[in-house]
Amino acid sequence: MKTGAYDVLDEHQHIRTLVDRLQGCIDQQKDGTDDWLAEVRPLVGELANRIGPHFNGEEAEFFQDVRQRIPRHAATIDKLIQQHRRLLQDLVALAGRLENLKKASGPDAESWVMDLTRTLRLLSTHEEQENELMLVAYWQDLGEAD
Q1: 123: how many CB neighbours lie within 10 A of its CB?
Q2: Do 18 and 43 form a contact (C-beta atoms < 8 A)?
Q3: CA-CA distance, 138 to 30, in Å (whole number)?
Q4: pLDDT tens-place values along the chain, 146 residues long
Q5: 62 neighbors 134 (Cβ within 8 angstroms)
């Protein structure tokens, strides 16, 4: 779905693919495979680098469009923007901690994986909330799916 020049659904699909791949790395780590660390590094870096522009695009195009056309969703949009700030901060911090992670196992690795798991869960919940907003705003409120 395009709102202006920004394709929200395409971006969500790409983010979802990165999250799924990261979850696969977490599963490898839980299985005791040390290869997960080499695989996770570029994925976390890409997600941390892409998530800011992704959020900015949503805010500038999708959220702005919904806010202008259906003002009753303003509180939901404000909450989602606050979540953007928190998720971006968490992902950047995780990427920074990953730079210093030398061993694929041990307490530091376990702590990092737990924090990544929590952040990915929050990101998935956030994306579900955005999808719900999109469905309600465009399909139910405006009837644009017809």
Answers
A1: 21
A2: yes
A3: 41
A4: 444 445 667 877 888 999 999 999 998 888 887 888 999 999 999 999 989 999 998 999 999 999 999 999 999 999 999 999 999 999 999 999 999 998 888 999 999 999 999 999 999 999 999 989 989 998 888 885 54
A5: yes
Question: What is the rounded distance in angstroms from the CA atom of residue 77 to the CA atom of residue 85?
Answer: 13
Residues 6+ apart with CB under 8 A from 133: 66, 73, 76, 77, 80
d(CA 78, CA 71): 11
pTM comes to 0.86
Q: Which CATH number fits domain 2-141: 1.20.120, 1.10.600, 3.40.50, 1.10.287?
A: 1.20.120
Q: Where are the beta strands (DSSP E) in 1-146?
A: 2-3, 6-7
